Amino acid sequence: MTTKTLKIQGMTCNHCVMRVAKALKAVPGVQDAKVDLQKAEAAVTYDEAKVAPEKFSVAVVDAGYKVV
User: What is the Cα–Cα distance from 52 to 18, expressed in whole angstroms?
Assistant: First the structure.
């Protein structure tokens, strides 16, 4: 398993955190996603053989936020 940290813009509350975490966890191959509102980032643990990290940005954008 590998962990990648993403910087995320647009999160303002815990509901945003839940939306981003849900979107990231829905990507096939993702084992876990921990989202931190204060740091404006998400730590995604995933199987690098099953998923390309570029899919994380797509999931975050689809949820209504921006990866920087």
Answer: 22
Going from N- to C-terminal start, the domains of the chain cover 2-67
Pick the closest to residue 27 from 66, 7, 1, 54 (CA basis): 54
Distance of CA 41 to the CA centre of its chain: 8
pTM over 0.90: yes
Q: 2-67 has which fold?
A: Alpha-Beta Plaits (3.30.70)
Parallel, antiparallel, or unpaired for β 41-46 and 66-67?
unpaired
The predicted pLDDT at position 56 comes to: 97
Q: Which residues of the chain have pLDDT under 50?
A: none
| 8 Å CB contact between 11 and 65 | yes
Instruction: Say if residues 1 and 31 touch (Cβ distance below 8 Å).
Output: yes
